[in-house]
Amino acid sequence: MKQIRFIHTADLHLDSPFIGLEQRLPPELFARIRESTFRSFHRIIDEAIKREVDFVLISGDLFDGEDRSIKAQARLQTEMNRLKQHSISAYILHGNHDHLNGQWVSLELPSNVHVFSSQVEAIRHQTKAGAIVHLYGFSYDKRHVWERKINEYQKQDGADFHIGLLHGYEENGKSSHQPYAPFSVNDLLEKQFDYWALGHIHQTKILHKDPYILYPGNIQGRHRKEIGAKGCYLVELDQTGTRLEFIETADIQWKKEVLKLSEEESFHSFFMRLKQMMEDNRQTNQGVMLEIQLENVSNREIRDKITSGELLEALQDGEDLNESFVWVHRFIIDPQHPLKFKENHPFYREFEKQTASLTKEDWEEALSSLYFHYKTSRFLTDLTEEEKEEMLEEAKRLIQEGLAEEGAMSGENF
């Protein structure tokens, strides 16, 4: 019975700059984070070699930017040479982040690497055991590919297995990612392939079984919204079906925990529970960036120590930034009196309208007193879109908390 075994990965984002983190973290920790995408990819190649796979599939966005840094290309070259030493092929397509029309100085990849062109094509692979595989895919020729490239995939006879690679957006999916190279699950099923190796969405997501159609997610979380395990899939195909194994490879995991305080909780009890939570989240050979959501914070002393930043500093101060660190990077305090707006309330509609309509000019005006102050401006860097979104979320939360407390005292119901 013919069988193939391969690794499916995507969205490596090698050499991601992690914009906005450098100013918030100790240099040693930021250096570890900057290296994390490379470490995760190295572990994926370790697994490919250890599991003796036939080939590795990389479904787009190997690099974080279209300029493809020399460092990132050199690391990719090194890892591909490791595969070559073990007679393992790699099949690569480029996505919206690392499209073919970027500007870069290119380093050649070894002969075991096959990069899909900008036209949908089929590449033939023969395993050591004699199984014939047809692999179908294309690389983005520009950043914005709006066309339904799926219409160009055509199954070709003469193979034991047919695998589609596609960096694109599932039309019925709920994702903040751009709808590039859109497709539906039915579009893919109509091709009658044995497996679809997707990329683009940074979350692990299985869209269909038999045949499997799935996103492996990105290989390394890059900020607090990319939480949970990150890695790749080991896939085995034969005439009886498909077997999957998710392999976690991320060097650093972003996590979120919830801690509910009791009404009479002392600061000592609260602090010790936080320390225990850190230990409970400690991973072997993996760092953890931990966000803690706090509920029922009625103790004014505790609240003051949180808002002043003193508690966060104390938890960070004793942490050894070794292989298995836990770094608490953020507290979120739930309102004492949760405010639930009525969607038809005029205030709610106006509140949502105003926050949704903020423009670049609004941000510049709001922050001008800081960014143009002669004492503070030299210490500030431009805000990323993620930082702006985070600030807006925090501002909305503070407004809602203030309104909730006012409403609790006045009896007003929003």
What would you say about this model in short?
The chain is α/β, with parallel strands linked by helices and 414 residues long.
Give the CATH architecture of the largest domain: 4-Layer Sandwich
Number of strands: 15
Biggest β-sheet description: 6 strands, mixed
CATH class of the largest domain: Alpha Beta
What does this structure look like?
This protein is α/β, with parallel strands linked by helices and about 425 residues long. It has two domains: about 5-250, Purple Acid Phosphatase, chain A, domain 2 (4-Layer Sandwich); about 255-410, no CATH class. The protein is built from nine helices and 15 strands. It has a six-stranded mixed β-sheet, with helices on one face. Strands 5-6-7-8-10-9 form a six-stranded mixed β-sheet, with no helix packed on it. Strand 13 (about 250-260), helix 4 and strand 14 form a beta-alpha-beta unit. Helix 1 (about 25-50) packs parallel to helix 2. It starts with a strand and ends with a helix. The model has no long low-confidence stretch (mean pLDDT about 90). This is Calcineurin-like phosphoesterase domain-containing protein. It comes from Bacillus smithii 7_3_47FAA. Pfam families: Metallophos (PF00149).
Produce the secondary structure layout.
Layout: E1 3-9, H1 27-50, E2 55-59, H2 70-85, E3 89-93, E4 113-115, E5 121-126, E6 132-137, E7 161-167, H3 185-190, E8 195-199, E9 205-208, E10 212-215, E11 231-238, E12 241-248, E13 252-260, H4 267-280, E14 287-295, H5 300-307, H6 310-317, E15 326-333, H7 346-356, H8 360-371, H9 385-410
Parallel strand pairs: 1-2, 2-3, 3-4, 6-7, 7-8, 8-10, 13-14, 14-15
Antiparallel strand pairs: 1-11, 5-6, 9-10, 11-12
Helix pairs in contact: 1-2
